[in-house]
Fold each of these.
Amino acid sequence: MQPTLLILAAGMASRYGSMKQIQGFGPNGETIMDYSIYDAIRSGFKKLVFIIRKDFAQDFKNIFEPKLKGRIEVDYVYQDLHSFVGGYKVPADRTKPWGTAHAVLCAKEAVQEPFAVINADDFYGKDSFQKASDFLNKECRDDLYSIIGYELAKTLSENGSVSRGVCEVDKDNNLISIAERVKIYRDANNKITYEEGDKKYEVPDDSKVSMNFWCFAPSVFPFIEKIFGEFLSKNGHNPKAEFFIPIIGDRFITEGKGKIKVIPTDAKWFGVTYKEDAPDVQASLNKLIKSGEYPETLWI
């Protein structure tokens, strides 16, 4: 059973206003997502599931279906506030989706095989997809999931601070915990620093961080559903509360359900945290194209 790639794109519409305005970075207007899909196909993924908002479905299909036809099986899942809430009454003032873990749960009926999850607007690099594909094909089990771990130094922005999930790993490279660190940046002494309250802490350049590239077996769906029910009863009244994938990873470990392997990659992540990052993303892609990593035109 060959793996599936789940792309979290439900939040994109709110950022761009319309799918028609989706930002192109490649020489022919390719989006960051195009490069992820290209890497997934050449790494052996056979199915692609987009998690999107229903009201943007047609725009989305118009962009991606013509170029992906015949290359990979494509399916669509809609993240809806009322999906998987059971008998819970969604508060009237709740407008934003429930978060990334809920988005994954919405794909429960569409995915029956080992799968990877990525963000739509992050560039992960070929090495990451190949390692994820190898793990999903050879190692993934109900008691063994994984996360692709990036070197912190390769995920910073020169245009401001970033937030990253810094991974604590054991001697066997299994995840112990993920700590969300906000305001991470290089200080005047070239040291990577994060702020918490009024204090500053140094973090090693080679610390492994999560960029939301996870690998799961389908057994994760009932587990997410159970924890989502608990999340709603505790936090559902808070209009800003979000149900994130790291919550699932943390509970999977602490409840003794299994292990999460941190698979290191030397790939350089990039994305648009700030609008000023866009030229850097374009330059990084051009460099990869010139080096032969990607063709000038992805979809011929």
Amino acid sequence: MDTLNAHGILPIARIVVFKDSVAARENPDHTIRKADGTPWRDKKGLMWVNPYANAVWEYNFRVAEEAIRMGFGEIQFDYIRFPEPYKSLPPQVFPESNGRTKTQALAEFLNAANKRIDKYGIRTTADIFGLVTTVNGALEVGQAWEPLAKATDVLLPMVYPSHYPHGSFGIKSPNAEPYNVIHIAISRARERNAALGITGQRVRPWLQGFTLGAPRYGPAELEQEKRAVYDSGFDSWVIWHPGSQYDLMVPALEKTTVSRAKNPPVPAPKVNLE
């Protein structure tokens, strides 16, 4: 941590919240259940902790506070969602839900976390699916843009072009058009924040640093992804590769940290987002 700080690098603590099989195994009373009361498991056989459980919230707040004491300058909550309700799996039962929707539970968790972490002068951020920026309403996993945007300092939508279905935004192969996909997705996030009165750099998208289908992703594709972010009016982005292999992308990285965001943003094409 001292080395990171000495080089002016912001250390961010990513905390996996509800897909926490270790916490679930050690605390079976606070897991998602099946109708018979036994722990529910996902397709990989993993248990999830119950997003409605206050004890789970408190545990994660304390993990965040410990990370802050270690010197982390931002808390990034991941897996702020419920597991997918696949029809091939048993129905999920949630103790302590008390009539609240999934979206309400996620927003309440993040609101409570933000208030707690604000006391330390630390930013609270959260990772969400990229589709959340353009889908009206909530996904099945509970994520919805407006409630979560109001509950965090920054939202990080995972707008990987390879993860958008063929035909999204009228684009036959989204993976082959990284600029257009990300420009539309992030422009919509900016518009929705503006409608809430949220201004500034409150969106930081995850960009695709891996290859999944054609074309093969390299520096040229990353350049397109970054330009889409800048043209949407934002400066910040993060990149992900499942094996943490980023050397290939080095030619696409800037040498300075000057602002590149377009102000006013470049208008995204009007498309049907339904």
Amino acid sequence: MLIPCRNEAATVARVVADFRAALPACEIYVYDNGSMDDTASAASAAGAIVRNERRPGKGGVIRRMLGEIDADAYVIVDGDATYDARSAPRMIAELVANDLDMVTAVRDERGKGAAYRRGHRLGNRAFNALLGVLFGSRPGDMLSGYRVLSRRFAKSFPANSRGFEIETELTVHALEQRLPVAEMTTPYFERPAGSSSKLSTWADGARILWMTAMLFRDEKPLAFFGAIALVIAGAGLLLGGSVVIEYMETRLVPRLPTAILATGLMLLAFLSLGCGLILNNVARGRREVKRLSYLAITAHRRPVPPT
């Protein structure tokens, strides 16, 4: 059980207690991400194992958690008491019974209608739709902070994100590696009184959008650079078409700067397409390396021999 936290003193003890009741046999780790309040002491008093990650950013915290903790299944949840602990056993059972690598909780809003901040519901749907267009499979809730991961997934996931865009990276990694995953609808509650969200609507939304674009570039470079080439070539044809027509009619090139610009744009379009073709082979090699890394990891921890 892994709980990344920053300034969640008002809720972390409740989260630890709820998941302790739902999963009595699990070890609960709380990673305090430079909190300015009593998050660490509250988590420790509730019975969690507390560790510190000073570098800010949820992505960095999850990167460290997955690297340090050794387990057969990893339950990751935010420490804001908005997710349903009673759903954890069902999610783990789904993961184990079907040999899955990730089960994502799709949030079903409960309470007084204020679980999502204004605009976040629409933004989440827009990002889900965008991911469906770019990667061919639309997730139900790509920004969910409640997931169960297999050992193989956790130990082969590169985790390059620094902030809240880590959920986007988790989703895209599973899609591009064609890993067996599932989604499960779970209740989603309002934040308790005294707790405030750390998500910045516009700043973090921009980071998520940028991460989506960069992942699309890295995973599907031919489509990415091909689209750029198509736009540039369209501009070149639009500018150069009239020049070619004039030349065909008069055998003169009266607008030489336009002709040079159109030629440059067409060359740039072919250069972009060439980059896409080359990087497409590089991306294929990277996917193969990730796949081999995934297969090299045992699905379950090897038992430690008695000493």
Amino acid sequence: MRLKRMGLTRAFSYSIADETEESPEIIRKDFSQCGIRGNRRGGYVIEDTLEALKKLFGREKEQNVILVGLGNIGVALVKYEGYKQSNLNLVAAFDIDRAKLTKRYNVPVYGMDQVKDIVEAFDVSVAILAVPESYAQETCHYLIDCGIKGILNFAPVLLKVPSHALVNNINILVELERLMYHIGVMQK
């Protein structure tokens, strides 16, 4: 948090609101619901607040993640160096193209037949899915069968999953259209 880097030890809800572009009321309400306590005169102890947030988001310990699909998006995601900042560890990537298994990447690359072994060996519960639309649902089912509980989906399709699994969809076209819409509204 920038406030901590500035040398502050305490922060008020309005300061945190400025940093997060939320209202102070929402900050206070959300913090209260999460058990994060502050007071009117002293605000929130930054170190305690950051620790509580890390625990809340499961960031107090390193979380292992895998990536499936080494097309253009998958390769970009493998090269991304920001995982460590969030205590995430990309332990492996997978692809059906055997030629990609011999290329050099930041992580080991395996065939799809090794997903279950890696998921079990590294206690992985989340996968990043960057496969073509036509393979996405089938790959999703396979990942869940291998023990994956959450999928960050970059394929341009809404995946159907059982109730014990979660999917977050990242559809670049939808996001661009949303942005274009808001720009159009602002220009009127």
